[in-house]
Amino acid sequence: MSLFIFGQDRPGIHQIQLEYYNNNYISSPDHHTNEPIIPNQPRNVTPTREVFGYHPYWMGTSWQNYNYNLISTIAFFSAEATPTGGLSNLHGWPVAGLINTAHANSVDVVLCVTLFSNSDLVTLLSNATYQQNLIDNLLTQVQAGNADGVNVDFESFPASQKQNMVQFITDLTNTFHTEIPGSKVTLATPAVDWNNGWDYNALATISDGLFIMGYNYYYSGSSSTGPNAPLTGNGYTVSWTVNDYLNKTNNQVDKLIIGCPYFGYEWPTASSSAGSSTTGITGSAKLYMEMEGNALSYGKLWHESSQTPWYRYQNPNWVQGWYDDSLSLSHKYDFSINNALLGVGIWAMGYDGSNPELWDLLSEKFGTNTINIENNPQSNSPEELSINALYPNPTNSSFTLEFFSYPNNKALQITIMTILGQEVKTVNIPFKNTYKHTWIWDGLDDKSKQLPTGIYILNLTDGQKTQMRKITIIK
Predict the structure, then answer these.
(1) Can you give the pTM of this predicted structure?
(2) Phi and psi dihedrals of 436, rounded to 5?
(3) 385-416 per-position pLDDT tens digit
(4) Ordered structural domains, the chain, with CATH
(5) Is residue 402 classed as helix, strand or coil in its secondary structure?
(6) Contact criterion met (CB below 8 Å) for 374 and 434
(7) What is the pLDDT at residue 29?
């Protein structure tokens, strides 16, 4: 299946969702407080690489459920810029509860500024006074939030403003670094620079990082179905995008963040086949929490070329959903690690709902909290048997289980069962004088036969307490 060559004029997911929620989201009464905002605290537990997540204002208080040990930076999305450098809608910024919770956990909070109109960007960037107005207004708002920097998200970017954008980011970065020592200036940048409007090299050199929006390769208006964020395959892919950035920035790996999607698309389709034509009805963007549930209900499939999952169902006509799960994200995270990039990013925080597997994956790839428990068990020991990570899940080969238990516990047992409760694998874990345990399963049952595609239940017990997790195998 050849990947769709997507056009430059269509709006990105950041713009689409901002416009949608501006018209449809109503803030809850307890969304904002007047509490004083504390400065960022020294960090004891740091992810091994940058983990940069957007918190859209319409996600409300979902920040209360984030695992801050696994996040480096939260970008509040967004403050909307005007073409003359004003800020027309702050969407409740500064949100004291969010900033204080992040700062108490030593996580940076930056304010994202958005402008998505080509003509408005020409007006703003071609006028030095308007540029300075925006810089001054952003500095005022970031200081009001006792925050840690700014993220610039300008889309539908005009090629005529290439050099003016470089000057704007130069002045913005110099101002923030001077007025708020230690602050960070980052940019959201496109997967493909269609009109050669972006000076990746200069912007990477000047700023503190580029958040590459590595998604929307297929979109709601695509004429055929396909992966939202293909890592590999024909045409434009995340791998192609990152290599393009590496070439154009002279390999400034320490400035590049791969933005990854916690969302995907569903389309009505002409057939059940991967890459089927869509029926002319616009597809819809859906969050991970919904798409993962659909995939588990209808049967998760794996698209080998793009390294992403998809599913299909009839209602009564065919519908296909394409998105990213913990397995496809695991491959993208490994790609970032193998290329020594600054880190990974998330659009958007909270889109995973209460599902634990994407946090588990971040813990496995970038977390250091488990190391602290091993090195200082007396101050950080778990109160009971607990599963720390299970990855990748879904899997098409093997997976790794990390869990904690008391060192004197000798009754540890793992059982894998079918969804109907039939035991297919039982393993007794040897005694270890440590809190942390790691077990790798090769996908074989007790008779050394490969288990087929399906949903299984992992049961971990120490004889008194039990932890259970759902596992999905896809072939």
Answers:
(1) 0.81
(2) -95, 135
(3) 778 778 788 888 788 888 877 665 567 899 99
(4) 13-262+324-365 (3.20.20.80), 377-473 (2.60.40.4070)
(5) strand
(6) yes
(7) 54
